[in-house]
Write a structure and sequence with these properties.
The chain has 3 domains: 2-43 and 100-127, no CATH class; 52-94 and 135-146, no CATH class; 152-282, no CATH class. 42% of the residues lie in helices and 11% in strands. It has helices at residues 8-20, 23-31, 76-85, 152-161, 171-181, 185-191, 202-230, 240-268, 271-276, 279-282; strands spanning 52-56, 67-74, 104-110, 115-120, 139-146. β3 (104-110) and β4 (115-120) form a beta hairpin. It starts with 7 loop residues before the first helix and ends in a 21-residue tail after the last helix.
Amino acid sequence: MEAARGDTAVANGMTRLLANTSGRARDCLLSEMGKVAARSSCSSPWSPSLDLQANIRPAAFGLDRRLTISVIALNTLTGLDQLLHGSNNLHGWGQPSFPDRTLLYVRGFDPTTNTYQYQVNEHFGATNGTRNAFRVPFQLAIQGRLTLGTDPARQQFNNVIGRGAGGRLNPEALKARMTRLVPNAFLDIIAVNDSAKLELTPDQITRLQTAGDAFKLKSDSLIDKVANILGDSTQKNPDPMTIFAKLQPSMTEGRKLATQAITDAKAILTPAQWAKVPDSIKTPGLRREGGGEGRFDRGGPGN
């Protein structure tokens, strides 16, 4: 910035530049006034970018959602810029910002004063995307992906809802299945009292029974929600990922309920009694009965 001193043309050019440039460039120039500018002391603005993608997974024609058709719009802002403003009046949407970094041009040398003569670049700091020599184009692409064989997520989903030769289970059948699979730590501890030699007192048995009944009411409520979602017959061929997303709140609540049940059961027993409780009861989760039934993973009525 020292070049601006003692040169009227440069001083006038700097005055015009400061009056017309962007606030970011103006602040940078003013902060460096009267000294040699530091390296990389000015910064350019953010460059916006937007890509869009739509996925279609048809269930018809026996595809069973194994075919994914993707429509991808790359650098959508550039496409909107051209659509709204025309090719001859682009506003630079979606283009990277390459601000003009040259502040002064050398226009000559004065041997009498042994100094260079400068001209101010009044476009310094300009970030208009239309000035870029290389532009990022708008692109539209269509992709297709076909999954061969059985999709693991759909196979697990079909196992859970009972889809197969017997058809899809209704909500009541799903409730009956999941009720058998949901462990009740309180009642399970009572059941192994003799075999594990826990020597529960009558008061402990009463407290476990009461807590077990309360747990069953809460778990039955969660099972109803899950079964109604899984057994919804209005959706002939639902997407497993969509169904699992709907189940997520109930599954999270189920994990908390199962974990709290273990904590409460442990508080009723003495440390010596708790040490004798089988690990299968201490670990909350759903049990798998037989090899043919679907199940959710550990953590309550779902995962």
